[in-house]
Amino acid sequence: MANFFLDNKDIQFQLQHPLMRKIVELKERGFAEKDKYETAPKNFEDAMDSYLRVMEIAGEVAADVIAPNAEGVDHEGPRVVDDHVVYASGTRQNLDAITAAGLGGITLPRKYNGLNFPLVCFVMANEMVARADAGFENLWGLQDCAETLNEFGSEELKMKYLPGVAEGETWAMTLTEPDAGSDLGAVMLKAHWDEAKGTWLLNGVKRFITNGDGDVSLVLARTEEGTKDARGLSMLVYDRKSMAVKVRRIENKFGIKGSPTCELVFTNAPAELVGDRKMGLIKYVMALMNAARLGIGAQSLGLCEAAYHEGLKYARERAQFGKAIINFPAVYEMLNNAKARIAAARALLYETTRFVEIYKQYEHISHERELSAEERAEMKFYSRLADAFTPMQKLFLSEYANSIAYDMLQIHGGSGYMKDYPIERIVRDARITNIYEGTSQLQVVAAINHVTKGTYLSQIEAYEAETLPASLEPIRKKLAAMKAEFVKMVTKVEGIEAEHKGEGFKDFHARRLVETAGHIIMTWVLAKEAAVLPEDYTLQLDTFVLIAEAEVAKAAAAIEASKWEDIALYKTILKEAE
Ligand SMILES: Cc1cc2nc3c(=O)[nH]c(=O)nc-3n(C[C@H](O)[C@H](O)[C@H](O)COP(=O)(O)OP(=O)(O)OC[C@H]3O[C@@H](n4cnc5c(N)ncnc54)[C@H](O)[C@@H]3O)c2cc1C
């Protein structure tokens, strides 16, 4: 039997991180539920044992049920019947299998029938499910919406909606509209309070909504009449049982074809307010999108892993010029790079997940009791890191999913262009990852402040303070040189930005700056792994540091040569286009 957990030492390694002890303590509130629920762990070892067992089950369902269904689902896709979505038959089988395996509500509290596992386990399950079928992960992973309701909803709403997750109910995150994509502040779907019916009613259109006909939807809507910006938006929860939302159509897409992307029409659809009015976009959707961005990181990593396995398999089987093509340096160079980038990407994804988990747990605890000054300081520290690392991991992992899938298709030669091999589907599925949940450009918009405010630099310095074995001294030296380049680049860009305010010099080079910080950080997190398990990670680190150095040098050269006048080429482009 195949198993995407047991066949992947790197994913298993992430459960052994030293911060797991702190995460488990926080999540289990000092094992306070041990006498209340049979499934609650008694101590750290007990908890880790449960995580391992459940991840093993997730790995088995992913490899044995979801992966074999992927091609069929891609071919069949969902359809609309009587204004509602009917999933492809394989999607239904996947949902039934994953629910029967007890994988619904992984992170939710036990009182809502959840497993109360850390986010690390949910991200892991998502990674494995995406390796099997990224389109299915797209809709299954939306149960992270339930986590947002758990964070901000009333107890009444939580009791009503959260237990369904364990029973396989699916969710939707209903934000985008024709005129509100990256700019969600422009959302116009109207919510008005109907006094007679004693409910909010939703009217309007949403588009591009994954699993838009799911059992429960979190909807961003305009509750404040006459407003035009983010301050007039609230979050509401819509229950499909009322059948008041019609699916006008399912988009005919390039990839993730099993995932229904819906255009929805709301006509007096009843809904309940989540949290406070006017905080919909400012607070709740921001939290929701940050969670979802981790989900896309996991989806992207699953795609990288799937692509890598297909590339490796084909390179070993295909012979040309009398030998297997894996023996040609041009081919194994692509495999080397993929393997090293996947290791660095995984290190970054789980580092980010741990930061998010710690600050979220403190936030939950702060609703139960007052935090000590030390705990408050820790919450602030990890919240800032989570804010800085979340867009960075989304940026890198989604771009890696695309470039690794591209290279692995290249290894297949002409066969890769045919529908006969899964790599063609993987390339198509990967293409969405750097578009939704905020495009790569929008991740840079979120991350650039942490370049200028020094969050990345101070975290790099925190890594520098850690001890590495003497064997990694050459890597430490390379990291110091990259950091010096980074500081030089930031100084130059900030200098010109200050001289020419409003001309956009900093934003023009923002991606180079964010990516440079990212290359340094990824090298650091991978170096820390190589320090623990040199036999597994040293070669990958040696390859990754070469990639990072080359990328940093390229970005540094571009900024070094750049003058603020150069960025105005687009004005000529605009003129030519007139
Ligand atoms: C398959 C699929 C599934 C989806 N699922 C969901 C879902 O479940 N729920 C949901 O609510 N939405 C969903 N979406 C919508 C998705 O999040 C948006 O498509 C995405 O945020 C981009 O918005 P847009 O398509 O309107 O592009 P636009 O916002 O019009 O962007 C066009 C281009 O302009 C750039 N751009 C725009 N603003 C800026 C800026 N300030 N700085 C720099 N560059 C900028 C963008 O990077 C992009 O290159 C989905 C989309 C797809 C394709």
Provide structural commentary.
- The chain has 578 residues and is an alpha+beta fold.
- It has three domains: 9-166 and 282-430, Butyryl-CoA Dehydrogenase, subunit A, domain 3 (Up-down Bundle); 171-278, Beta Barrel (Butyryl-CoA Dehydrogenase, subunit A, domain 2); 459-568, Up-down Bundle (Four Helix Bundle (Hemerythrin (Met), subunit A)).
- 59% of the residues lie in helices and 11% in strands.
- Strands 3, 4, 5, 6, 7, 8 and 9 form a seven-stranded mixed sheet that branches. Strands 1-2 form a two-stranded antiparallel sheet.
- A hairpin with a 2-residue loop joins strand 10 (319-320) and strand 11 (323-324).
- Helix 3 packs antiparallel against helix 4, helix 10 (280-317) packs antiparallel against helix 13 and helix 11 packs antiparallel against helix 12 (373-411).
- It is globular and about 70 Å long.
- The structure holds flavin-adenine dinucleotide (FAD).
- Flavin-adenine dinucleotide (FAD) is lined by residues 173-176, 181-182, 208-210, 253, 261, 432, 435-439, 441-442, 445.
- Flavin-adenine dinucleotide binds next to strand 3, strand 5 and helix 14.
Summarize the structure.
This protein has helices at residues 9-14, 19-27, 44-76, 89-100, 119-132, 134-140, 144-152, 155-161, 163-166, 280-317, 329-368, 373-411, 423-430, 440-452, 455-464, 473-499, 505-508, 510-532, 534-561, 569-577; strands at residues 79-81, 84-86, 171-174, 190-194, 199-210, 216-222, 233-239, 245-250, 261-274, 319-320, 323-324. It is α+β, with helices and mostly antiparallel strands.
